[in-house]
Amino acid sequence: MALRKILNDNHPVLRSPAQEVKKINSGVLRLLDDMIETMRDADGVGLAANQVGVPKRLLVASAGEDEVYELINPYCENEEGEEVSIEGCLSVPGYYGEVPRSGKIVVNALNREGEKIRLEVEGLQARILQHEMDHLEGILFTDKAVRMVDPEELKSEDSKSEDSKSEENN
């Protein structure tokens, strides 16, 4: 495994739709492994292949402490509801925005063994997968943000939530 360089938002590969993976081979498997290592090293929760300069329809997303989704040629079959929440991106460091996303989605893809999988996810996991699938279409969260958020606002929100946690613990 190796760390890959994460492209920033002005790179043309990030603005072009990724190509379908026709064959799962050792190169695709190595790329998935590298993407997981790169995502974890950058403290991210998701990463699309075009973010590391490979315009293929691959993404990885953290589903928890140890679980990671590895999705090949993912597409959304169904979406329900709408939630607006703050997002950031490894390719747009230091910027955050309020982005509307479906609250619950159904995603179809192939896993690393080439088997068809179907995921029904909601909340944060749904948000992460939609964000990464947007990357595969050449779309950044900044394109969908209804409002960009000043990082100072996030700090004050964090301190408010810390204050309420302290009050809850007393």
Q: Can you give a write-up of this model?
A:
- The protein is an alpha+beta fold and 170 residues long.
- The protein has a single domain (12-169), classed as Peptide Deformylase (Alpha-Beta Complex).
- The protein has a five-stranded antiparallel β-sheet, sandwiched between helices.
- Residues 161-170 have low confidence and may be disordered.
- It has helices at 26-41, 123-136, 141-144, 151-169, and strands at residues 46-48, 58-62, 68-80, 83-87, 96-101, 104-110, 116-122, 147-149.
Secondary-structure topology with pairs:
Layout lengths: L25 H16 L4 E3 L9 E5 L5 E13 L2 E5 L8 E6 L2 E7 L5 E7 H14 L4 H4 L2 E3 L1 H19 L1
Antiparallel strand pairs: 1-2, 2-3, 3-6, 4-5, 5-8, 6-7
CATH architecture field: Alpha-Beta Complex
Structural class, from secondary structure content?
alpha+beta
Helix content: 25-40%
Low-confidence stretches: 161-170
In the sheet with the most strands, the strands line up as 1-2-3-6-7
As a percent range, the share of strand residues is: 25-35%
CATH topology: Peptide Deformylase
The SSE string, one letter per element, is HEEEEEEEHHEH
Average pLDDT works out at: 91
Number of strands: 8
Terminal CA distance? 46 Å
Q: Please report the first level of CATH classification, the CATH class.
A: Alpha Beta
Number of domains: 1
Output the number of helix runs: 4
- Indicate the overall shape: globular
Outline the biggest β-sheet: 5 strands, antiparallel
Return Rg in Å: 17 Å
